[in-house]
Write a structure and sequence with these properties.
This protein has 221 residues and is α/β, with parallel strands linked by helices. 37% of the residues lie in helices and 11% in strands. It is found in: Cytoplasm.
Length: 221
């Protein structure tokens, strides 16, 4: 696995790339991609970092692992490639955006338009075997992405962390709340949303209110 990551992140992540666990992870990913169909495409594994440079990042949204269906994953959490039907969680995200900030439900589920505004759309696990959700868990990705969150917390100021669902909420312990704004809610999946744990969280308007209060440009959701 070639670590082709945006130049701005390299000084902060170089130490992780040199750790023994990352070498083992890289070998595992190379083997998986050579033997099986895996997602996202190899050149999209680090897409979240390519679209949101280190100093440009102002919001972090955390997912779990990539979509495992054909043509869905594009390296950004909750996002799908152009022309792909919207998965249930993404549908609920867009519905909440519409209710919260009045932006009409979009045609495209490709969230590059968010990422390019400084939203790091980070999955805790960056790869997956086709048709097998969670198949690349506990191979080292979690250690790497935990380090990303800690490094952002330490070296940046006034970021917004959107943590949706039990898995993401556990990552709050990696964030210094004295320096950053953390918003939590239920997951946008139908199971959680239908129990009243997602809709009405107003995370999108709350994010923009915080950014504006800090002199930052709000997100065009």
């Amino acid at each position: 696995m070639k670590v082709d990551i945006h130049q701005s992140w390299k000084p902060y992540l170089e130490e992780e790339f040199n750790q023994p666990y990352f070498g083992s992870l890289a070998q595992f990913v190379r083997d998986e991609y050579s033997r099986y169909t895996c997602y996202p495409r190899g050149n999209r594994i680090f897409a979240a970092f390519d679209h949101s440079a280190f100093d440009h990042t102002k919001v972090v949204i955390l997912g779990q692992d990539p979509y495992h269906g054909p043509g869905q994953a594009n390296g950004l959490c909750f996002s799908v490639r152009e022309g792909i039907s919207h998965p249930p969680s993404l549908i609920n995200i867009f519905k909440e955006v519409e209710q919260d900030v009045g932006i009409p439900y979009p045609k495209s589920g490709n969230l590059e338009r968010w990422a390019d505004q400084g939203i790091l759309l980070l999955n805790a696990i960056l790869t997956v075997r086709a048709g097998q959700a969670g198949s690349h868990q506990n191979k080292g990705w979690e250690q790497f992405t935990d380090a990303v969150i800690r490094i952002l917390s330490e070296h940046r100021q006034d970021l917004v962390f959107l943590l949706w669902g039990g898995y993401a909420k556990k990552k709050a312990s990696l964030v210094d709340r004295r320096k950053h704004h953390v918003l939590t809610s239920g997951h946008p999946s139908p199971l959680s949303a239908n129990r009243g744990l997602w809709f009405g969280n107003k995370h999108f308007s709350s994010t923009n209110e915080f950014l504006k209060a800090k002199g930052e440009k709000p997100i065009a959701w």
